[in-house]
Amino acid sequence: MATISSNLLYLNTRRSPPFSQQFQSSTRTKPITVSIIKAQLAPSPKEDIVIVGAGIAGLSTALALHRLGIGSIVLEQAVSLRTGGTSLTLFKNGWQVLDTIGVGNDLRKQFLEIQGMVIKSEDGRELRSFRFKDEDESQEVRAVERRILLETLANQLPPDTVQFSSKLANIERTENGEILLELEDGARLYSKIVIGCDGIRSPIAKWMGFSGPRYVGHCAFRGLASYPEGQPFEPKVNYVYGRGLRAGYVPVSPTKVYWFICFNRSSPGPKITDAYELKKKAKELVRNWPSELLNIIDVTPDDTIIRTPLVDRWLWPAVTPRASDGGVVLVGDAWHPMTPNLGQGACCALEDAVVLARKLANAIISEPESIESAFRSYEAERWPRVFPLTIRANLVGSALQWENPLVCSVRNNVVIPKLVRLGPLLEHTNFECEPL
Fold this sequence. Notes:
By secondary structure, the chain is of the alpha/beta class. Helices cover 33% and strands 25% of the residues. The strands form four sheets. The chain has a seven-stranded mixed sheet, with helices on both faces. A six-stranded mixed sheet has the order 9-4-3-13-20-19. The chain has a five-stranded mixed sheet with strand order 2-1-12-11-10. Strand 15 (236-241) and strand 16 form a beta hairpin.
């Protein structure tokens, strides 16, 4: 992205070809043009769309709009795609969205389909096992490397859609209703529409009046183990439940295995970046647990191990701000961060993307003055979906982090073996994703 200091940057959004035409021909549109124009001479474009954040929410929103013939640019504060981190689990609702925006099959070729789930106690005793398709024939579960998912989404966008080293410094509304985005390098961007996909601690959400995400009392270590000669595990999710501590691992590909350890902590504690220290502390937590988990941690490259506090935000009606404010709207973690206990954070961000893109495209193409109505419709459709899921994910996590020995004994010997049914637990993965 060119360095711009004293001029105003106006973004001329160009229409992409319809999805069917673009997908069949596999041709890219021309890059979105960026022109520097004196403010007093430049008309205000009516269809300018700026997406802040090139994570899963931002890239999938940009791609969904692109498939509908609507161009955008994506501002990313980092110098490249944020390919750090480990992996994420996508259930059938996530895969339906990826199919809708045209990248599902590319990703399926690279990642194993997970057949089922095994739950064990900390002493290695099997408590319960399930096969996903026995409970739901249409279910599809795969763990996906975050890096590959982001690269796949970005590669489907027109060239120069993603503008790197573009960190937002300030946002404000102008007298004529446009949104002014000021970047740290001095660039100033005006836009009619701003889509905040800037993550859990979103500056745009803060500007809109949202409180910061709430720490839920648990932290998690995560890593991506590497087996160059081939990993030895069956394609199943493996959970191990202890007292105030749980862990799990799942094969991602023929050579990668994702793992996590979730533990109780009264406060998030200091941030740890030293890889050796991270690995050491993770192993200490499960040193008396089944050795296969320790072995997985041992073969994990240092640069894939992270430790993060788990947070969420509950969208209470009449208390929490709206998902949109004028021409600004939130998507994914920026709006509804949730704990990972249901594996729905990324899936819900993908759902948000296609729902918003469809409503926004209809408004732009047919009734430009109804953009705010499209945002309201988006919120009305998505809120009943994401609010209960956020609460449910929180409650599931709290229950699995019990420390009381008696309660944990009842959980392991009665609740999980005799009462838990996987079918109802997967109902939240049902999502009707209409074609774009």
